[in-house]
Amino acid sequence: MVTNKQVTSKQLAKYLGISRQALFKHLPKLLEEGKIGKIGRPPVVYYFIKDQIVSTIKSQDNQIESQIIEKNYLIITPTGEKLIGMEGFKYWCDKNKLPLIKTITEYEKTFQKYDKYKKAGLIDGTYKLKHSFDKVYVNKIFYLDFYSIERFGKTKLGWMLLYAKQSQNKILIKEICESIQKKINELLVKYNINAVSFVPPTVKREIQLMAEIENNLNIHLPIINLQKIKTDLIVPQKTLSKIEDRVENARQTIMVNNTRSYDNILLIDDAIGSGATINETAKKIREKKIAKNRIYGLAITGSFKGFEIISEV
Fold first, then answer.
1. Could you list the residue ranges that cross the membrane (predicted)?
2. How many domains does the chain fold into?
3. Are residues 86 and 134 in the same domain?
4. What is the domain-level CATH number for residue 231?
């Protein structure tokens, strides 16, 4: 019974060894005192101990609701349907044959665990960079969300980023920009950014994600031009599993074309896995004395553990 966080009155009566009539003499008082709660309406009603379930879960007209899921959950189905909030979460639970109410509780607790890493909407990954490389050339590196979280997979931004890039969908790219614009503007002001640079893609596409993001964000600051050198064989960063290979790739193929210098610079990338691209780009900017003071890095999503490789994006 301890493992069943929600139970029916029949299950509860059986566990306590009393009749259902006797049980219903006690339930109203326990509900009134707030010691237990209930979800659903007859004939399907579940009871739970309140401190064992996240308070944002509630039932209205037999519809289960969760503020966290409604605001933060998204899944894209194999057929390309974008399901948001509880609709998407129910789909995921049904597909994986998971009990909805119990899984909502587990998702909310997992989400809150990861959300603790956010300060003012930004995740600071600087300490990971310092543990990955002998020399770090950025002062701080941030991302707006994790690419994925344990058990539940890709985050809302993770899903949007993956399919915006893979499908070259301008509408999805615009949605991403609208969702991150405010935080980026706040970062520009907070760190007194004087110039911005967007990390160029390796693989040529008709619609380039970073170019579209640059256009949609419409940041009114000087743009430092970065170029990706074309090679006989294109080797995307995501195909390299070793950090040292990613470092070499970034060092040899990214060029900085700029003659002016600025106090504080922001480098923007779509996803940070190893961090090699951002770090090597910052190194070249410093070597050319384009940055007088500080260099910051920002990615739409980043990895959680260390700087493991994000191979999809």
1. none
2. 3
3. no
4. 3.40.50
- For residue 53, the model assigns a pLDDT of 41
pLDDT digits (tens, 9 = 90+) for 8-37: 888 888 887 788 888 888 888 887 777 787
Structure tokens at 281: 């780009």
pTM beyond 0.90, yes or no: no
What is the span of the domain harbouring residue 42?
A: 1-53
Identify the segments of the chain with pLDDT beneath 50: 1-2, 52-57, 59-62
Both 22 and 48 in one domain: the answer is yes
As a whole number of Å, the CA-based R_g of the chain is 24
- CA atoms lying within 13 Å on the CB side of residue 263: 6
Beta bridge partners of 41: 44
Residue 288 near residue 258, CB atoms below 8 Å = yes
3-class secondary-structure state, position 172: helix
pLDDT at 1: 45
Q: Identify any residues that bridge with 98 across adjacent strands, giving them in sequence order.
A: none
122-124 and 140-146 strand pairing: antiparallel
- Supply φ then ψ for residue 270, to 5 degrees: -80, -45
- Tell me: do 129 and 234 sit in the same domain: yes
- 49 and 69, same domain (yes or no): no
The neighbouring-strand residues paired with 236 are none
